[in-house]
């Protein structure tokens, strides 16, 4: 089976939590598990373990999905917090190691929301720590009440695979569940889409084929909530899986021992 690694979300020690209160937890959100799982795919939650063991696990993967969750820490891109948004520097370090391995080994990567922002930071970019504070004229990108029912229009940039993939949709919409956004774009990243207020919503790594290493600011795994209103999410994942299958075939070939 094709093995797709999914970076963990973390929940840290909390004495007020009745179950596992003093312990740290690694988890996957259920919509993400359902999105990644298909007939020929084994989703693998990448554990928080010592680096030599982590490397051994990553060597068995055919692709990596960086899931959403907590904010990135401003220190991870050379800034100090401007307010209450401290982020999760520990998770940043964990995921940056995963992403670095994936890039160095030419693995397919799909970054979603936080994962999209982490990719930008990995390539030297920066973030707006809070859209409403730093860009007060921007549209609403996050609502705690509406959550994955909030959506907005996006505009695909010319001549990229997302524009071609969704050419049949005249007014593409995506969900929006983020209060941070790309400020300075990282090196070697090509912009694929923007929101109606100009914020970057999708990009890809220019040193790999389009659709092999890319990220989106929206949550494709949440799309069933707004089925028919937002762009079909399966198209993005199928493109990513095409490259994961090629990686699987390559991994199987390299494991063949000749006499």
Describe the structure.
Helix content is 27%, strand content 22%. With 259 residues, it is of the alpha/beta class. It has a single domain (2-255), classed as Rossmann fold.
Give the overall pLDDT as a whole number: 96
H/E element sequence: EEEHEHEHEHEHEHEEEEEH
How is the biggest beta sheet arranged? 9 strands, mixed
CATH superfamily: Class I glutamine amidotransferase (GATase) domain
Give the SSE map.
Layout: E1 2-7, E2 9-11, E3 25-27, H1 30-36, E4 41-46, H2 51-58, E5 63-66, H3 89-104, E6 109-112, H4 114-122, E7 127-128, H5 131-134, E8 151-156, H6 161-165, E9 173-175, E10 181-182, E11 189-195, E12 200-205, E13 213-216, H7 234-255
Parallel strand pairs: 1-4, 1-5, 5-6, 6-13
Antiparallel strand pairs: 2-3, 7-10, 8-9, 8-11, 11-12, 12-13
Keywords:
nine-stranded mixed beta sheet; single chain; globular; 259 residues; 27% helix
Summarize the structure.
This protein has about 260 residues and is α/β, with parallel strands linked by helices. It has one domain (about 1-255): Rossmann fold (3-Layer(aba) Sandwich), CATH 3.40.50.880. Helices cover about 25% and strands about 20% of the residues.
